[in-house]
Amino acid sequence: MAHATTNMQTRGRTVRVWDIAVRVFHWSLVAVVGLAFLTEDARTFHEVVGYAAVALVGFRLIWGLIGTRHARFSSFVPSPRRFVAYMRDMKERREKRYLGHNPAGGAMVVALLITLSLVGVTGYYAAAQGISGLRWVGEVHEAFVNILVGLIGLHIAGVVLASFRHSENLVIAMITGQKEVDDDHPDQ
Ligand code: HEM
Ligand code: HEM
User: Fold this and answer.
1) Rounded to an integer, what distance in angstroms lies between the CA atom of residue 10 and that of residue 185?
2) For 50, which of 10, 92, 96, 104 is 20 to 30 Å away at the CA?
3) Per-residue model confidence as pLDDT tens digits over 95-134
4) Measured at the alpha carbon of residue 37, what is the angle toward residues 32 and 40, in degrees to the nearest 5?
5) In the CATH scheme, what is the code of domain 15-95+102-176?
6) Ligand 1 pocket, residue 26 CB under 6 Å
7) Those residues with Cβ within 8 angstroms of residue 173's Cβ, 6 or more apart along the chain or in another chain
């Protein structure tokens, strides 16, 4: 039977969790957001990679509606109640393992997609400020970039923490798409 803390024992079979679109989306996003950070002074290049990030987010919004099971928002966006319950379980070190995004990861996906959109929109207006005269928009763009940096830090910390807590490598899972099923909890 299942052992709550050593559930490796009930795992073995692997299944595809992250489809090819989610994986290509993720690592392309990491690349273009990284390039946007590095090229803030090369304005044209910065704008091009910034728009590429926005395009990827647009694609992900559509894929969240029509994509495969674990890619769909309906499968991982938590209600506030579920999110709070999961955070409490984390504090008490008894949070469950999930095959797809856990409730904290699901909330982080939403936060990242919204913040990236706001960075993109304010970037557009910052680039157009010569015409619009809205000089402060650049500052707002930078403020959202700072929020994005904070979220990315939390995101990576969450991935590392969840990997240790459930004895699995989530980074490799986001590369191969494969995760081991816990046969006692096949839907988690
Ligand atoms: C620019 C930085 C990053 C951004 C904007 C970002 C964004 C995202 C997004 C939007 C997702 C949701 C994937 C989906 O369902 O489509 C995600 C998941 C994930 N990301 Fe990142 N990510 C970043 C950096 C990283 C890095 C550096 C790593 C590796 C350490 C990483 C590892 C993962 C993993 C393992 C997942 C799946 C989490 C899970 O199993 O629930 N990410 N990321
Ligand atoms: C994920 C996407 C993006 C990221 C991570 C990002 C990041 C940054 C960073 C780090 C800066 C420098 C802030 C500073 O000087 O402290 C910046 C500035 C700027 N970005 Fe972006 N950016 C993104 C998208 C865009 C887009 C789509 C555009 C326009 C089409 C854009 C236009 C600008 C402009 C015009 C500035 C200068 C603002 C000013 O100095 O007033 N960015 N961005």
Assistant:
1) 9
2) 104
3) 999 999 999 999 999 999 999 999 999 999 999 876 666 7
4) 115
5) 1.20.950
6) yes
7) 17, 18, 179
Structure tokens at 124: 């557009």
Return the residue matching tokens 């969240």: 64
Q: Which residue puts its alpha carbon closest to atom 14 of ligand 2? A: 142
Contacts of 44 (CB under 8 A, 6+ apart): none
Could you tell me the pTM of the whole model?
0.91
* Residue corresponding to tokens 């999930």: 98
Cα separation, 17 vs 70, whole angstroms? 6
AA letter at 126: A
C-alpha dihedral sign at 128, 120, 41, 150: positive
- CB of 179 sitting under 6 A from ligand 1: no
Calculate the CA 32 to chain-centre distance.
14
